[in-house]
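Worked example 3 (structure in, sequence out).
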């Protein structure tokens, strides 16, 4: 029997979803739980698995459409249905397909069985004729396809390391580096230039300058990010403070124990849990930074629900470590790694990106000295981590003697809502974070 594919409800408060991409085409064979299509909701983007094995008979809702939850978006025939071969197809279907003269799909209906049971329709598909058109169906993001076009790369030749063989940004950049693209085809020879007259009438307007460009529609996630950022700037009175932190102690500790830490725990040791532990400590000292504004009231949150910004090929998402103050260093490292990996694989649930009380973002991961991030509503503060870099620094010893030493420095910033957090409090918060990191003495267990 055919199985309906429905738009799932990804959370109690979510009533609709947008189909951003179908990962299968009508007529293709599907295994149960194999990724079938991608959706975008108000909370999270996700890959939706097939509810049954069989053949995708029909797509009822095309890409880019937004529908209510529980809407039927497609139909899967059971595994017994097979794609008909040309020899088995009825004459009228074969004639129609051959008369078209193109590689188009032709439908063939089988006669009813003796018992009167209707056999589902089967779709015949022929291979794509154009190489570029076939490459468009390789699982990838718009950015990846744009890079492929600009560098004259056939995406079908790029090994995909993403979920289900998806070609990621790293895959295409690595391929371009290893296989330099050939020069684009030379344009046809231009006709001989015509000598312009020495004098030209002022009434003759110059030809308009044409600049090559491309217009691409915003993805659903990009639209949501844009809306939320504008809303935050409109809601909160943003102020930013920046501190320089000496991370030499932390850098040396991490370098010394990272191999043993991974061998002992199975988790890689990153810098993020160091900053998280320092932020949690400072939030306990300045609880107003872990609050939100509700009308004319200030809501002080009992728990620290720590949002960790994760950059994706197709946007940005902020999964949340709930009750982060209850986790030790190892627990934080494991939670951060798990959420980041599942964010990139589109495996997060709406609850895992909701309820944050304070956010940390890491622009320094790309070499940036520091960033001035926008607050994620309804929170009142966000901390940015800059690049860690060795620099010469003047050191004064206990006797007052100065010397120059090489230290690992990092700039951390705090964006905060000046409606309820004063500049003095923002600076004191960063000083507390800085002192905790510079004098690190916490066990990494």
């Amino acid at each position: 029997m055919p199985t309906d594919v429905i738009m799932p409800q990804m959370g109690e408060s979510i009533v609709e979803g947008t189909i951003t991409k179908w990962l299968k085409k009508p007529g293709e064979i599907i295994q149960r739980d194999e990724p079938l299509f991608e959706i975008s909701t108000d909370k999270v983007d996700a890959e939706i698995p097939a509810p049954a094995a069989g053949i995708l008979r029909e797509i009822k809702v095309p890409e880019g459409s937004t529908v209510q939850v529980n809407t039927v978006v497609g139909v899967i025939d059971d595994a017994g249905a097979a794609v008909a071969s040309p020899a088995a197809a009825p004459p009228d279907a074969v004639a129609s397909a051959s008369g078209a003269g193109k590689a188009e799909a032709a439908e063939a209906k089988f006669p009813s069985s003796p018992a009167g049971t209707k056999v589902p329709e089967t779709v015949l598909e022929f291979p794509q004729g154009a190489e570029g058109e076939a490459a468009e169906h390789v699982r990838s993001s718009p950015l990846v396809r744009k890079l492929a076009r600009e560098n004259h790369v056939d995406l079908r030749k790029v090994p995909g390391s993403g979920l289900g063989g998806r070609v990621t940004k790293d895959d295409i950049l690595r391929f371009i580096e290893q296989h330099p693209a050939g020069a684009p085809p030379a344009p046809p020879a231009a006709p001989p230039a015509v000598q312009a007259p020495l004098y030209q009438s002022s009434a003759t307007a110059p030809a308009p300058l044409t600049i090559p460009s491309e217009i691409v529609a915003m993805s659903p996630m990009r639209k949501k990010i844009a809306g939320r950022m504008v809303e935050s700037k409109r809601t909160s009175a943003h102020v930013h403070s920046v501190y320089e932190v000496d991370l030499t102690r932390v850098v040396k500790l991490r370098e010394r124990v990272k191999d043993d830490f991974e061998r002992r725990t199975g988790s890689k040791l990153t810098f993020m849990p160091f900053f998280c532990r320092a932020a949690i400590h400072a939030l306990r000292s300045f609880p107003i930074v872990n609050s939100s504004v509700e009308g004319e009231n200030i809501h002080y949150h009992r728990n620290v629900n720590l949002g960790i910004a994760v950059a994706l090929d197709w946007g940005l998402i902020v999964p949340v470590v709930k009750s982060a103050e209850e986790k030790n260093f190892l627990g934080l490292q494991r939670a951060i790694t798990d959420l980041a990996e599942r964010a990139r694989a589109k495996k997060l649930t709406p609850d895992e990106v909701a309820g944050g009380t304070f956010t940390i973002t890491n622009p320094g991961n790309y070499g940036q000295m520091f960033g001035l991030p926008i607050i994620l509503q309804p929170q009142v503060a966000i901390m940015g981590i800059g690049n860690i870099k060795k620099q010469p620094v003047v050191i004064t010893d206990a006797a007052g003697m100065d010397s120059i030493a090489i230290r690992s420095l990092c700039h951390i910033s705090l964006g905060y809502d000046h409606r309820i957090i004063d500049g003095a409090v923002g600076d004191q918060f960063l000083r507390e974070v800085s002192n905790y990191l510079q004098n690190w003495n916490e066990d990494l267990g």
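Notes: The domain at 131-178 is CATH 4.10.320.10 (Dihydrolipoamide Transferase). Residues 81-135, 182-188 have pLDDT under 50 and may be disordered.
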